[in-house]
Amino acid sequence: DTMKDVLGKYFTVGAAVNIDIVYGRSPEEARIVTDNFNSIVAENCMKGEVIHPEENTYFWDDADRTVKFAEDNGLEIIGHCLVWHSQPPEWMFTYENGDTVSRAVLIDRMYHHITNVVSRYKGKIKGWDVVNEAVNDDGTMRQSPYYKIIGPDYVRLAFEFAHEADPNAELYINDFSMASPGKRATICKIVRQLKADGCRIDGIGMQSHNGIDYPDLDEYEASIDSFAACGVKVMITELDMNMLPSPDDFSGADISQHFDYQDKLNPYKSGLDSKGRKLFEKRYLDFFGIYYRHRHQISRVTFWGVTDKGSWLNDFPVEGRTNYPLLFDRENKAKPVVEKIIKLF
Ligand code: XIL
């Protein structure tokens, strides 16, 4: 029995897939997905900058193919994401002369974007990350173009437009650093307000880009409880474990010019040493221990990628590193921790 069979008793188990996987250019990884997971999400191809590059131009090929991959393999598929300050349809915020658009124009553009994307996959996509990363860690609202041009109610409008386009789709709010108490409070406030306004909101996504010393496990668990208490599903949406230190840990160094820092930032070039491997396992088992305890509140756990080789963390926040954040290694083999996670359930 694999993860999807055992953990699947309680929640779906997903992975973010890139286009190589869905086009058959990475058959081993595709096999890992269909063997171990029962849910997928597109890593990039449904984001605004890719799917809607110009006002009257949509690029559907990759998203269509991703939906087909899910259908062909009997996988649930989640849509990511409709409104986000990063990788946005950049044209949306300005007129041709470069001036910032009016509130009414941005609402209209956002309406058309959401309506066209969501209705294309109506009945096929189980739920959408409607608004991604709207809140700062301190609980203030992120000053994204959507916020600055439309105002705080861009969040409610996005949920209304998405619901109108596919009344049966689940709708989620998604963010990182969800263990932060300030962010937790604001997310709960937004969700309760959306409900009070009569909007559909089904779940809160905790990205969970975790590392060896963050987040604080008690705060993370407190957030699961607080989110569940809002009366919505809790989803772990982008799980991975960054095993490398952050450039912030080397403050003052200009990492782009100092390649010796690159080495310091990448201490595990030839693989994790035994200490690193132990820490990796411990962290994953700590988190899955939490997911087990909260198995009746959590409805999905999705990893952000499939194998270490394809992980975005090889290139973020520093490019060209060798990172070890996922459960499947560079040779497409399951790491020993997979069996240990399964045994927890
Ligand atoms: C990342 C992708 O994995 C990268 O390939 C891309 O270059 C940048 O975005 N939070 C999110 C995801 O919600 O969409 C991001 O995905 C990772 C952080």
Mind explaining what this structure looks like?
- With 345 residues, the chain is an alpha/beta fold.
- It has one domain (3-344): TIM Barrel (Alpha-Beta Barrel), CATH 3.20.20.80.
- The chain is 39% helix and 16% strand.
- It has 13 helices and 9 strands.
- The protein has an 8-stranded parallel beta barrel with strand order 1-2-3-4-5-6-8-9, surrounded by 5 helices.
- The site of (3S,4R)-3-hydroxy-2-oxopiperidin-4-yl beta-D-xylopyranoside has 6 residues, from loops.
- Distance between termini? 12 Å
Low-confidence stretches: none
Q: What radius of gyration results from the CA coordinates?
A: 20 Å
Strand tally is: 9
Report strand order across the widest sheet. Answer: 1-2-3-4-5-6-8-9
CATH architecture, please? Answer: Alpha-Beta Barrel
The CATH class is identified as Alpha Beta
**CATH H-level superfamily:** Glycosidases
Count of all domains: 1
Domain GH10: 1-344
Active site: 238
Catalytic activity: Endohydrolysis of (1->4)-beta-D-xylosidic linkages in xylans
Organism: Marseilla massiliensis
List the helices and strands and how they pair.
Layout: H1 3-6, E1 12-17, H2 19-22, H3 27-36, E2 39-42, H4 48-51, H5 61-72, E3 76-84, H6 103-120, E4 127-132, H7 145-150, H8 154-165, E5 170-175, H9 181-196, E6 203-206, E7 209-211, H10 217-229, E8 233-242, H11 259-265, H12 274-293, E9 298-303, H13 337-344
Parallel strand pairs: 1-2, 1-9, 2-3, 3-4, 4-5, 5-6, 6-8, 7-8, 8-9
Helix pairs in contact: 6-8, 9-10, 12-13
Bound molecules: (3S,4R)-3-hydroxy-2-oxopiperidin-4-yl beta-D-xylopyranoside.
The site of (3S,4R)-3-hydroxy-2-oxopiperidin-4-yl beta-D-xylopyranoside has 6 residues, from loops.
